[in-house]
Specification:
With about 190 residues, the protein is mostly beta strands. The protein folds into 2 domains: about 100 residues, Elongation Factor Tu (Ef-tu), domain 3; about 70 residues, PRC-barrel domain (SH3 type barrels). The protein is built from 3 helices and 13 strands. It has a 6-stranded antiparallel β-barrel. It has a 6-stranded mixed β-sheet with strand order 11-10-9-8-13-12, with no helix packed on it. A hairpin with a 5-residue loop joins strand 10 and strand 11. The protein starts with a strand and ends in a 6-residue tail after the last strand.
Length: about 190
């Protein structure tokens, strides 16, 4: 195991939030490529779980825990420092590692705000209680976020429909019941 890492078990609620790009400076800092435009989970968690890179040189095996000392924005990117990662060589050994954070460590969101990861897999039903499909992914179009809904057609072939994730069309999101209620018809 390389400096700063200890063997760990991946939490059951772990979500991949980014990747370590490269060393940054000479004092053990490293650059992070977040998967989100608003990487609050990286900033709020002091425990990152790492899996080795999928390509290139693997410098460690299995799941490892990295204790984070500091994370900050720098020139439109994110940089971090971890305990016991004391120099550039140790930071370079982390290159390519996939970063996971326990979902339970994500910051709380305001009322009517949701993490995308919590919406994926929810059933979508309309006001007439017709099933419209399951949320497969979300897209940011700049002006708004769009739910990409997957559903089988009459022959069983998977199709998709897109519904803007805005209050004009989304009546309710019930994470406990695992559904989104929308003002949308099957033939739209």
């Amino acid at each position: 195991m390389i400096a700063g890492l200890e063997a760990a078990e991946m939490p059951a609620d772990a979500i991949e939030v980014g990747r370590i790009a490269d060393a940054w400076g000479v004092k053990g800092w490293f650059k992070v490529l977040p998967h989100s435009a608003d990487p609050e989970a990286l900033f709020s968690s002091k425990k990152w779980y790492l899996l080795p890179t999928e390509r290139g040189l693997k410098t460690f095996d299995g799941c490892a825990l990295l204790a984070i000392k500091e994370v900050k924005e720098h020139s439109a990117s994110v940089v971090a420092m971890a305990q016991d990662v004391l120099d550039r060589n140790a930071a370079e050994a982390l290159r390519g590692a996939r970063i996971f954070v326990a979902r339970s460590n994500f910051p709380q969101v305001a009322k009517d705000e949701y993490y995308w990861v919590d919406l994926i897999g929810l059933d979508v039903i309309n006001r007439q209680d017709e099933a419209l499909g399951v949320v497969r992914e979300l897209l940011s179009t700049g002006a708004q976020t769009v739910l990409v809904i997957e559903y089988p057609d009459e022959s069983g072939k998977l199709q998709e429909r897109m519904i803007p994730f805005v209050s004009a069309y989304v009546d309710d999101v019930d994470l406990k019941a695992r559904h989104v209620r929308v003002d949308w018809q099957k033939d739209y």
